[in-house]
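Now for today's protein.

===
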Amino acid sequence: MSDTDSTGEELNHDETGSDATAATAEISGERHLTFELAEQVYGIELARVQEIVRVQPPTPVPDLPDYVRGVINLRGTVVPVVDVRTRLGLEQRDQDERTCVVVCSFRGEGIGLIVDTVCDVVEIQESKVVATNAGHTESNDQMLRGLHRSDEIVTILICLDRMLADDRDADAVAAA
């Protein structure tokens, strides 16, 4: 599958991201899609990314967790969308022309992640990944896989399964 990032650069990836092994996947040598939230760079496994689309107003669905903004119609498929800022407890901001939805594989279905902007695809080197036990809440520590240090930047690696499947809310997100 081929998409483009916010700069127009082509992103090549497959859409076979295995939900069963994602939480235990080896970090070494994996490619990650990076994106910004609150001026910090985050990353998710590229193999889980299906496509990147412009943000569109979601249709609200009652009785969902506050971080699930609702659902969007993506070429005839209903896709729940999660506000990653809300999910991670970050300050909210208005959406703009760079805000987008990263559609990822979760439990065999597509789920959209609202992010400030998509940055790049990077190769993660295990030797540069450190633990995330530096003052985050316990809930956030469980959602984070580690911190990747490169010469210029620190990328916070998100465990997609833990972020979306945290406690009783997982079934609500998948059912949306």
In short: The longest helix spans residues 169-175. Helices lie at 84-87, 138-143, 160-164, 169-175.
